[in-house]
Amino acid sequence: MNSTSPSATLTPAVESDSRPTVLEILHSWVVTVDHKKLGLMYISYGLLFFVVAGLEACLMRFQLAFPNNTLVSPQVFNQLFTLHGTTMVFLVGMPILFGFANYLVPLMIGARDLAFPRLNAFGFWLSAFGGILLYFSLIGGMGMTGAGSAPDVGWFAYSPLTAKAFSRGHSTDYWTLGILVGGFGSIATAANLVTTILCMRCRGMTLGRMPLLVWLNLVMCGMVLMVISPLTAAQIMLLLDRFLGSHFFDTQAGGSAVLWQHFFWIFGHPEVYVLILPGFAFASEIIPVFSRKAIFGYPVMVGATVAIAFVSFGVWAHHMFTVGMTSVGNTFFAISTMLVGVPTGIKIFNWIGTMWGGKIRLATPMLFCIAFLFQFLIAGLTGIMLAIVPFDWQLSDSYFVVAHFHFVLVGGLLFTIFGAIYYWFPKATGRLMSEGLGKWHFWLFVIGFHITFDTMHIPGLLGMPRRIYTYDAGRGWDLWNLICTVGVVFQGAGVLCFVANVLRSLVKGTPAGNDPWDAWTLEWATTSPPPEYNFAEAPVVRSRRPLWDLKHPSDPDWHYE
Amino acid sequence: MNAASTPVPPVPETWNLPAKGRVGMACLILAESAIFIIFVVAYVFYLGKDTSGPMPRQVLELPILNSICLLASSATITFAVRALERGAVGAFAAGWAATVALGGYFLFGTALEWKRLIQVHGLTLQTNLFGTTFYSLVGLHACHVIVGLVMLLIVLALTLLGRVRREHAWRTDVLALYWHFVDAIWIVVFTVVYIIGR
């Protein structure tokens, strides 16, 4: 460094001389505690693993395209579905949703950062480390002495598959530790977000005026605190069993394999709502803006969200009907599961009510949300079907179930995530994404999705079990499997359009301005991208749509609320 | 709508939101409670399902003195925090040190109990389901006591160095919240393990 005069240190450095080097930029991202940078890191990290887990899914679909196919071995197939499931839930879904919450919640409530910025960075790096641990098993799964192997116990890792005797080497340990460490990160970030929402709202932002996205993330984070912890406890027990020789899930010493199933699904089912509530949150922000109407039934939407969260804690054993429970247990869990349909139905009607009579703009974010409405409805209907115990006895662990939960997580969640990326990309980067490529992305993906997953119900109904690496010809499954795989090609092409769109728009996208969608929540009041401090002056809020009030001083919202 | 004549609704002059520290700690307590619930459920679920001894009735003794010490430490920490809120740093240091001593004695008592169980009765984590669930549940609680003690000791060291002043009272209050939680969990563990389970 050449010597600088005292005056030079006070004035901003000259642009041409001191452009940050790559190392400096990297360093600034690694040490950052800024909620926007961490949010973008969460989302990028999630999208990276989305591509990885997507490729795993492609491999499985190509293997299953034809009967008696030998593209991958049975062992590799087991590893593929284990990694695909674990990655999509823990390394794609959670990070992307936490990323959006990180980025948007402080902006929407008029705060400058999360309540505990350093804890936020800690949470991110724990999650990132958890993901790396899981994939490190590929090279370190057998310890340092042997060839690597990925975990192959399925994403819910039923006991006794995970016992030391049946799962040799360390692949299962990497799975356990990866989820455990990532879980601590999730708990830290959820606690941070709850505290932020409760303690950092700007003046006038009462709970009843918070944007629905913030409400839904508050409920989601509250759920994370109560939902991830049972999984953490169960993983600790599994580690004790595997390393210290305890007997939690050891049936020979009187332990119970079914207890693991209970503990896992006490986490696993509410987790579905942890994942889908932020999806609802995106839809609840995007649909009003592109229908040019305020959300229909705001208080009911909040109430329905809380109701979903409440009921979701009492439905876990519907994953276990085939284990053999008492008829009282079966009845309870069947009824509670169907009960979730009520608040969810209310939400769907409210979104339709928002669109009803609105001046709908069919931009890409809105297209994804409209598709979400239809697909999530179908996902809910097959969910109700599976809640009927005898029906579940017939179809549990079949491709019907696989089709059902992919309708929830792809048709429901992933579509809203894509919508959210198109919607908030201009805020985060200052540039709009291309509508043309966006339309290609949407139509290719929606067509591919329906070719794959509508069809996938049928081999399930015909008795095809999940997790088989191949099947004999002539069972009536051949054609359906081939069609499923053909759909994957369309989905892959759609995702390629998306990747191209993101990369192209980062460089050459049309400058977006502060408020490209003419929206109403506070994040659009600041610049795109927002400055590090978000708002030069803390905003003051008088209604649920503060920006509407600003734009229409003669007809502000507070007259109607 | 007679919009133009409607005055702008006033924004509240005072805008009080809950304190960050307490809400953050409450979130942690919520998550920790869920972890403990699972371990308690495992303990209760496996009660009496052992295929071999020893059984809880044969080997467990009521840790009365231990429990009194831990519960008393909740009182001393409350006394300490109240003192710091008044600015009485000396009283704070005394109350805080007493809390550390009482918590330390609890850990020592647990260590003695485990030593007796291992050496006299041969009960380890591997012996049977009782050993598995007992050591993991009581051990999980003891881990929380250890973490609490480490944090208490850091504050005590800072106090002795003269770095803790009245304006830090809210921080010690957040830490006290955690300590109360550890005590409350002990009441649950005591009831389940030593009263119901015996």
Descriptive tags:
heterodimer; A: 561 residues; mainly alpha; Cytochrome C Oxidase, Chain A; 16 helices; B: 198 residues; 6 helices
Would you mind describing this structure in some detail?
The complex is a heterodimer of chains A (561) and B (198). By secondary structure, chain A is mostly helical. Chain A has one domain (31-559): Cytochrome c oxidase-like, subunit I domain (Cytochrome C Oxidase, Chain A, Up-down Bundle), CATH 1.20.210.10. Chain A is 66% helix and 0% strand. The longest helix of chain A is centred in the first third of the chain and has 35 residues, at 74-108. Chain B is an all-alpha fold. Chain B has helices spanning 20-46, 56-59, 64-86, 89-119, 129-160, 169-196. In chain B, α1 (20-46) runs antiparallel to α5 (129-160), α1 (20-46) packs parallel to α6 and α3 packs antiparallel against α6 (169-196). The model of chain B is unreliable at 1-5 (pLDDT under 50).
In short:
With 561 residues, chain A is an all-alpha fold.
User: How many β strands of chain B by DSSP?
Assistant: 0
* Main beta sheet strand tally, sense and closure of chain A: none
Shape of chain A: globular
The most extensive interface between chains reads: A-B, 47 and 43 residues
The average pLDDT value of chain B, as a whole number, equals 93
Radius of gyration of chain B: 22 Å
As a percent range, the share of helical residues of chain B equals over 70%
Percentage beta strand of chain A: under 5%
What is the CATH architecture annotation of chain A? Up-down Bundle
Helicity of chain A, as a percent range: 55-70%
Oligomer: heterodimer
Strand content of chain B: under 5%
Per CATH, the superfamily of the domain at 78-198 in chain B is Cytochrome c oxidase, subunit III, four-helix bundle
**How does the major sheet of chain B shape up?**
none
Using the 3D structure, state the CATH architecture of the domain at 78-198 in chain B: Up-down Bundle
